[in-house]
């Protein structure tokens, strides 16, 4: 069990599509345990493996009473109904911007035994599923903002002490 150090906006691992999980072994089990331990803190709804520096398609979630993980997730359903909802990110701390998301989302993936799992939800859980799957595709929520809002958000993020610089 370990709470892992987070990677921050500017770190290339966050903009690189993650590799599919192909080995279901003790190393993967340790990664999932770390994802679950790291997301288990107040104010944390989801955590993708790239956010702790591991470029594999896996994430954990902790929304209301639903806690879990998904390996190799793929979004299979998004509602046509959308809303703009305040969104933040552990890898972009302190910044919250209204982001357009589907109000309902469903995804398919697998568990540690490589058995199929489906997770679906509305509102905040739907937002989390979309946000974390985006991370695995190298997309940050800032990438989803309208152009004027995105420019301001990027400028603000680059001015923060936590912004990753080489």
TrEMBL record:
Its cofactor is Fe(2+). Fe cation binds at residues 89, 131, 135. CDD domains: Pep_deformylase. It catalyses: N-terminal N-formyl-L-methionyl-[peptide] + H2O = N-terminal L-methionyl-[peptide] + formate. Binds 1 Fe(2+) ion. It comes from the Bacteria. Gene3D superfamilies: Peptide deformylase (3.90.45.10). Its EC number is 3.5.1.88. Keywords: Hydrolase, Iron, Metal-binding, Protein biosynthesis. The keyword Magnesium does not apply. The keyword Protein biosynthesis applies. Removes the formyl group from the N-terminal Met of newly synthesized proteins. Requires at least a dipeptide for an efficient rate of reaction. N-terminal L-methionine is a prerequisite for activity but the enzyme has broad specificity at other positions. This is Peptide deformylase. It comes from Amycolatopsis arida.
């Amino acid at each position: 069990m370990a709470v892992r150090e987070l990677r921050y906006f500017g770190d290339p691992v966050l903009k690189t599509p993650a590799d599919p999980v192909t080995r279901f072994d003790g190393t993967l089990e340790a990664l999932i345990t770390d994802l679950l331990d790291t997301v288990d803190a107040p104010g944390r709804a989801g955590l993708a493996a790239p956010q702790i520096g591991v470029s594999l398609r896996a994430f954990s979630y902790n929304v209301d009473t639903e806690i879990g993980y998904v390996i190799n997730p793929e979004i299979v359903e998004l509602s046509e109904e959308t809303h703009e909802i305040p969104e933040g990110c552990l890898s972009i701390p302190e910044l919250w911007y209204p982001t357009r998301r589907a109000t309902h989302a469903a995804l398919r993936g697998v568990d540690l035994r490589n058995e199929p799992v489906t997770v679906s939800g509305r509102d905040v859980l739907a937002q989390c599923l979309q946000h974390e799957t985006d991370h695995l595709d190298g997309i940050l929520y800032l990438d989803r903002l309208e152009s004027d809002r995105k420019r301001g958000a990027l400028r603000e993020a680059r001015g923060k002490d936590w912004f990753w610089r080489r």
